[in-house]
Amino acid sequence: MSQTSTERLREYLAQLPPQSQALLMREFERAVERGEDVTVANFVLAQLRKVVRGAEEDVHPRTDDPVRLLFRPLEPFLVDGNAAARPGQIRRASLLPVWQWLLRDGAPDQARAFEAALIKIRETGASHEVEPAVRKLQLATADAVLRIATPVAGGDVQRTLARIGPPEVVEDLLSIGSLLQAREALDGLGSRLASVLRVFGDAQIGTVIAALNVPSLQTAHLLPFALSLVMQKLAAPWQIIRLAIKMAASDDEIRVAATPYGIAVSIALHDLSVMAASLRLDIKRGRFEDVAEHLKTLHDGVRGLRTELDLRNDSAWGRQLAAVRADISNAVQSEIDSVPGRVRRILRQRPDKDISSTARVDSSEVEETAALIDFVAVCRTYASELAINEVTLRTYSDLQHYVEQSTEALVQSLRSADPRTRGYRQMQVSAAIRFCEVLFGHDYASLMTRAAENALTGERKSSRTG
Q1: CA torsion angle for 74, 77, 78, 83 (degrees, to 10)?
Q2: Could you give the 3-state DSSP secondary structure of residue 91?
Q3: Is residue 19 part of a domain?
Q4: Region for 417 from its dihedrals, namely left if φ exceeds 0, alpha if ψ lies in -120 to 50, beta otherwise
Q5: What secondary structure letter does DSSP report for 175?
Q6: What is the DSSP letter of 421?
Q7: Is the pTM here over 0.90, yes or no?
Q8: What is the spatial distance between Cα 43 and Cα 38, in angstroms, rounded to a whole number?
């Protein structure tokens, strides 16, 4: 492939969600182990690893990592951190303690035999033998995990579980065992789904329901993982609730909740809540690069749940959705309220006597404020659904009025500016024009730029005539 094609592939891979990247990596590594399309698979894997690990250095394949090979079917469902995982998720931090338990107590003979097999495969280069060895250990692991994680009468189960790891690891045990046991069913589901479900309408819903109609995937424990796999294919993940509505043949939340697929609504609400928390953190840290995308996703998700489900205000789902809206509103409103003050500090016309010859307008502060103005503009687009309508519209209108008046006044001030303060006035005008570009567009900003140039030219001519 040419360099341009390689860069295009890498850009595409970088745009995929982390779980989709993990899913794609898993499929290509399996293709390599089966000896299928090795050249293409290795090339794509190399680019994908560079994207995932954020490095351009040569990266060696990790198909000789026993922990990663064993738990590879879990990759699409892993989440970082030790926070509470929703149904259909497993904490990444739980995997290593389970592996250590396998080596120590769970299935030590099988685990060590697997490590020995990997060493032999590396020496002989017989990569086709990796997959059978992996599957053998996965089934042994599933048996060991399910045996200890399934409650039985008698015996000191809690003490045994405590030997594996802390409570959050124990919480993930049953999911780990169930997923390893049902690997073929989940692989089959993934192969039957389209790579991207852009418009999740009736035809696609019917296809997905048919793909999910596998007894092993219909259990209370595995269905959330199957739904999570479907969500990763959806262009709009919140639309997973349409499966629950279809299965209930009703949009009434009581009837939807009564079906096994009602868990889809809980999953969608949880993910919206996590995204709202991420939005709040980004705003707090002054990182606005992804805010527009997050706001759109939250807006579409909140609107979708409010319009496609008949939710009661006092129900668990209704209260959870209200909490998401309140979280977004609180995070956004405090930042919106701060923008007018920042603009006024930069554009305020102070008397010449109050401006020192060394006064400067901080260019980084100007760009930060421009980003905040753009943030207000983005919020205005999604204001009504996110419960920030009044404050957003009022602030945006005030900003337009103030910046327009201030820019005209600052341009006029250039005509009679004191030479000592002219540099500072020009910096203020540049900042005002930058804000105009965000609020009114490029054409208006260009017009004000020409007006500022004319004001400076006229002032210089006046000085020479004098």
Answers
A1: -140
A2: strand
A3: yes
A4: beta
A5: H
A6: T
A7: no
A8: 8
* Residues 166, 59 share a domain: yes
Which DSSP category does 245 fall into?
H
From 282, 445, 303, 274, select the one nearest 375 (Cα to Cα).
282
Backbone angles phi, psi at 240, to 5 degrees: -60, -25
Which DSSP string corresponds to 304-323? HHHHHSB--TTSHHHHHHHH
Rounded Cα–Cα distance for residues 249 and 176 (Å): 32
Q: Tens digit of pLDDT for each residue in 67-85? A: 999 999 999 999 987 667 8
Residue 384 lies in domain: 332-465
> DSSP letters of 329-388?
HHHHHHHHHHHHHHHHHHH----GGG--TT----HHHHHHHHHHHHHHHHHHHTTTTTT-
Residue with tokens 């210089």, as numbered in its chain: 460
Give the separation between CA 122 and CA 118, rounded to whole angstroms. 6
Number of domains in the chain: 3
436 and 291 in a single domain? The answer is no
For residue range 395-426, list pLDDT tens digits in order. Answer: 999 999 999 999 999 999 888 778 888 889 99
